[in-house]
Amino acid sequence: MSEGRTGLSLSPRALYVEVAELLRQRIFQRELEPGSWIDELKIAEEYGISRTPLREALKVLAAEGLVTMKVRRGAYVTEVSTQDLSDVYHLLSLLESDAAGVVATKGTDAELTELMSLHAELEKAAKPGPANTDAFFAVNERFHMRLLEIANNRWRDQMVADLRKVMKLNRHNSLLKTGRIQESLQEHRAIMAALTARDAEATVARMREHFANGLEAAA
């Protein structure tokens, strides 16, 4: 175990994995802004580690698309272009709408009840307020990831997980747009209605509409 000057304790698992997670969260929380240079010396000093595990961590984040490595310039937090967003949302729409169709057809009553419970949490989190924006985002992601788990295709899950990491670089901005949370909630209501009706075709269509509207808000 290593402890940095900030008093942060790193767990016994592979050090670079722990560092990658710490940096990943800093990126998602906007402590490290898109386009900003990652000061390796400063971060290594903060965590009380050498630059070797830090560089390994940056390789992991680069593979996920969260960090861009520039020759002789170092690592930068990835800036997501309009085309990047369009490509990511397009693929997520295909993958998650397919998963939703599977759940509408093959999901058990207990699994659909679980999704209904998550949707109920989403309704509660949709109340106005800065803190609720974060809560809405978190529950929204739990809903989508649980739906994917129920659809049970690990290869699809892996692809979606990677794509969603890139989407997170811009996602909070889209939810902050006026009225987007309520629009997203309405879309989730439509998805749930189609799911509980066991209408696979409608579920696929509603999920695709959800991502199309999400892209329009994010662009």
From TrEMBL:
Keywords: DNA-binding, Transcription, Transcription regulation
The UniProt record lists the keyword DNA-binding: yes
Domain HTH gntR-type: residue ranges: 13-80
InterPro entries attached to this UniProt entry: GntR_C, TF_FadR/GntR_C, Tscrpt_reg_HTH_GntR, WH-like_DNA-bd_sf, WH_DNA-bd_sf
Matching SUPFAM superfamilies: GntR ligand-binding domain-like, Winged helix' DNA-binding domain
Keyword field contains Phosphoprotein: no
Protein's UniProt name: GntR family transcriptional regulator
Organism whose genome encodes this protein: Rhodoferax lacus
